[in-house]
Amino acid sequence: MADTLASSPVSDALAPGKPIVEFQDVSIGFDGNQVLDRVSFTVLHGETRILLGPAGGGKSVLMKLANGLLEPDSGVIRIFGRDLKDMSKREIFEMRAHIGMVFQESALFDSLNVENNVAYRLEEEHVDPVQIHNRVVEALQFVELEKAIDKFPSELSGGMRRRVSIARAIISRPDLILYDSPTGGLDPITSNTIIELVVKQRDVYHTTCLLITHRLQDAFTLATHRYNLDHHRMEPIPNNGIAAETMFLILNEGKVVFDGTTLQLTHTQDPWLRRYIE
Amino acid sequence: MRFISPEAYAKSVVASVQEYSLLCGRAIANIFSKPRYIADTFTQMDSIGVGSLPIVVLTGFFTGCVLALQAATTLQQFGAVNMTGRLVALSMVKELGPVLTGLMVSGRNASGMASELGSMKVSEQIDAMRALGTDPIRKLVTPRLVATVFMLFFLTIISDACGTLGGGLVSVFLLRLNGGTYFHTAYMTLIAGDVIGGLVKPIFSGFIIATIGCYYGLKTTGGTRGVGQSTTQAVVASSVLIILVDFLVTQLMIGIFGR
Predict the structure, then answer these.
(1) How many of the other CB atoms lie within 10 Å of CB of B236?
(2) A145 touching chain B per CB within 8 A
């Protein structure tokens, strides 16, 4: 993967301070309903951008646009510095090798077991089978699910499926991870486990990520916690500190209503935002 | 119940034809470029070809049996009961073998493809596949297309053979006809045009079964109910198209071979 990355144009975009995801006046609608209306924002390298907003506000659509799974009606989307409109289908498929995506409902291949689900991308790249197995075990250890390697998705709980989905997304060591409601529909304890994995990925590998959540608690946990590698657990940042690389983007009815830092969000005077976060 | 305007309906039909044509074009183009999913193609060949063998053998065999019985009853009135083999062979090879095999395989596999791909679509597995850098048309549609066209060709030959054999067994054991005469007239009546015509049809039928099954599967929306609708639509559309294309190919073959 590292070799592939080094030889691809994507590597040029991977420098601190460089934009990884750029949306400029992006609009999209379905059947006459405007889902996103002139949405603009930028996610820089190493940043964790949390997408918040009421249900039906276009967050999942935005995520699919960022991965080229949907095409906007208007506006420009640049991923790793390249305009998606200028890329051929083949180039978009190649670009996706650098992006990991965790779907709302996990979207695991139900005819494949956990090992083959996690290994899917590496098998597509014809990586050596021994290396694939080792990488799968490593990814499953990361999500603490190595014992479930032979199970099928139907044998797993919702939380376990979400963790397998995360393992599948990170196995190729992507440069951008898109989490679409990774804690949606999960109990608080399992949600916390998933958020811990996201924090671990952020603090250990410094991967740029976009994360949708409906739980403000999860969003603020991400902003106020860090991963302690010595104790192998998540802990609050000392002195009420805030993770500088964690930013917020709030959508309401297809429009960006907030784009800024955790402090800016907690100190906002906007009445709608105050109601939303309180 | 909400009525749709004729204009909107016409537009949706044109859009569907366009989507279907694009899917077919891309599925064919993928055959000529890498990566190719050879293992998936063999898996589909096993599932579609070997899996459909019992249904094709039984259908072909009993169709031949019934043909022989019916033909003998009518031919007896003209004192031409010895022509039974000729009638069974011509009917099976030119028409019933290809069409019935196509319909049987369509019922079994177009529905299977539509429901499998439809389930994957509604559970976001197709999106996940795309997100993982795999073209679903290349991975899912092209192997099914190649496998169906290839296997339906041979399934039709098997069906023709089983039908002729079934007709022969009925002729010998029930109608007390001479077996040698039956198979001799059956063999002698067939010319190259009949065989070619009968073997061109499964190529078209196979194409229709795979592309229609995959098309309806990939455009599934609306959860499990949507999967059910796609499955039904795939079987209906592919069955009608198989018979329609059979008519057109028959016309073409009559134009070329004169019968």
Answers:
(1) 14
(2) no
